[in-house]
Amino acid sequence: MAITVKLPTQLRETVGGVASLQAEGATVGEALESVFASHGELRDRLYQDGDLRRFVNVYLGGEDIRFLDGLKTALPEGAELTILPAVAGGC
Amino acid sequence: MAAKQLKCRECGTEYPLEARYVCSKCFGPLEVGYDHEHITDVSEMRRRIQGGPQNIWRYHDFLPLEGPQPRTRTGLPAGCTPLIRADRLAERLGLGEVWVKNDAANPTHSFKDRVVSVAATRARELGFDTLACASTGNLANSVAAHGAALGMASYVLIPADLEEQKVLATGVYGTNLVKVRGNYDDVNRLCTELSGDRENWAFVNINMRPYYAEGSKTVSYEIAEQLGWEIPDRVVVPIASGSLFTKIGKGFQEFIDVGLIDGDVPIMNGAQATGCSPVAAAFRDGQDFCRPVKPHTIAKSLAIGNPADGPYALDLARATAGSIDSVNDQEIRAGIRLLAETTGVFTETAGGVTTAVLQKLAETGAIGSDERVVIVITGEGLKTLDAVRHSFMDYEVDPTIESFEQAFAGAVQV
């Protein structure tokens, strides 16, 4: 299934300056794996010990995937994933 | 300046002192690193601080700013708020010595003026012309006011359901006020995305976050100075993202490291609202990370479900033999009343959380009778009036002695 993965500015340099990448997969984890297949250098930036780094947030339709089913969250056709740094905001 | 670099708290990668908040290697948070080796004469440094202005710029040597000190006295100076000895509160709770650091006494009535002063000043040094923020309300007030004082445009994004007082006290400064249909975490996500595309905007708590957060250290600097260069035994601080809590710890540690004060970082107690308590839950469960939650509490200024500095707040509470506790909405309202009735300080819901957690710690015997305790009251009661509505009775009378006497007939005469 065709998925769009939107990248934060911190990662754009790594992939030649583009703001988003196309991915394939039925789940968030599969979609990210398909991105890593063409941009292997992103894996270490986003993952640690096979899971998302604790300061990386991934959103599906504005919802943090940690509130859904994590990397196993199912993706509808044409879904858009947004990756953002977790370290922002607050008081 | 004494600040030397930005450094990732996770992997240690260093970056220059620019508008950058996250490590491009591991996404960890960046923090300002300093070189204070030039401070060898402690007495001289104390005199230098005491001879400074009556605001946070007296601690200029410990903040990440360039330039001569007088230049930074302009704008909207924050800090030097009262530290009040609260004997009646201590007595009510059966404690030895309690002090109230009343940060409602800042220009826009919350501790946020400290962090925004530093972030806005640094933003100007870096050439930004526009301030922006994601806010639960107090930050909105402060960013709008600092924008006005410094002549910078500002964009303030808040959850649409914020307390009316906080909305009015933002719009009055002439900012671009944006109400987002969502909770704070939604607002924050939107701003994080926006900050990637608006390169001339200084989002005080996103791309300026390392500088912004440093402003909170001035709370502990002031407490130490106001206690005669001594460290309290214990400090109770509200936790939203955990940034204030951890930076208060850092502030004490820095003053200890350079020799301005002797001893250890105080026992650090964090205070959360049960309706949004990811850090307290992680503390209770012995975890070193925070599971995000959907906030549901009257303490909207603490309603951050995905706390960025949660892991570091957990580390600090454990390292100092402190704790992170939570209190429910009823206890929060009671906490506001308790502080008001015993100290004359009227605080917002976040201060109710802090006071109620102090009460809880006192009741469980966690606080020794010989301890000197400071509670950090971060905001003003007039901003969350709904929390105290109908919490007391009043009298309505005709303008006659008879009517007055009738109203009080049967009431206990004092």
Characterise this structure.
The complex is a heterodimer of chains A (91) and B (414). Chain A is an alpha+beta fold and 91 residues long. Chain A has helices at residues 9-12, 28-38, 41-46; strands at residues 2-6, 20-24, 47-48, 51-52, 56-60, 63-64, 80-85. Chain A contains three helices and seven strands, in the order βαβααβββββ. In chain A, strand 3 and strand 4 form a beta hairpin. Chain A starts with a strand and ends in a 6-residue tail after the last strand. The model of chain A has no long low-confidence stretch (mean pLDDT 91). By secondary structure, chain B is α/β, with parallel strands linked by helices. Chain B has two domains: 83-109 and 216-387, 3-Layer(aba) Sandwich (Rossmann fold), CATH 3.40.50; 112-212, Rossmann fold (3-Layer(aba) Sandwich), CATH 3.40.50. Chain B is 36% helix and 16% strand. Chain B is built from 14 helices and 13 strands. The model of chain B has no long low-confidence stretch (mean pLDDT 95). Classes of the chains: A alpha+beta (91), B alpha/beta (414). Chain A binds chain B through residues 8-11, 13, 45-46, 48, 53-57, 59, 62, 64, 66-67, 82, 84-91, and chain B through 10, 21-22, 24-29, 111-112, 115, 134, 136, 138-139, 182, 184-189, 191-193, 195-196, 205-206, 209, 240-244, 289, 291-292, 294, 301, 304, 306-309, 311, 378.
CATH architecture of the largest domain in chain B: 3-Layer(aba) Sandwich
DSSP strand count of chain A = 7
Number-wise, the strands of chain B total: 13
> Which structural class is indicated by helix and strand composition of chain B?
alpha/beta
Second-tier CATH architecture of chain A: Roll
Question: Would you identify the CATH H-level superfamily of chain A?
Answer: Beta-grasp domain
CATH fold description of the largest domain in chain B? Rossmann fold
Mean pLDDT of chain B: 95
How many strands, what sense, and barrel or not for the largest sheet of chain A?
5 strands, mixed
Strand content of chain A: 25-35%
Determine the number of helices of chain B (DSSP H or I, runs of at least 4 residues): 14
How many helical stretches of chain A? 3
Characterize the overall form of chain A.
Answer: globular
Number of domains of chain A: 1
Largest sheet of chain B: 6 strands, mixed
Low-confidence segments of chain A, given as residue ranges, are none
Return the average pLDDT of chain A rounded to an integer. Answer: 91
Strands side by side in the biggest sheet of chain A: 2-1-7-5-6
InterPro entries (chain A): Beta-grasp_dom_sf (IPR012675), Mopterin_synth/thiamin_S_b (IPR016155), SAMP1_3 (IPR054834), Sulfur_Carrier/Prot_Modifier (IPR052045), ThiS/MoaD-like (IPR003749)
Protein name (chain A): Sulfur/cysteine carrier protein CysO
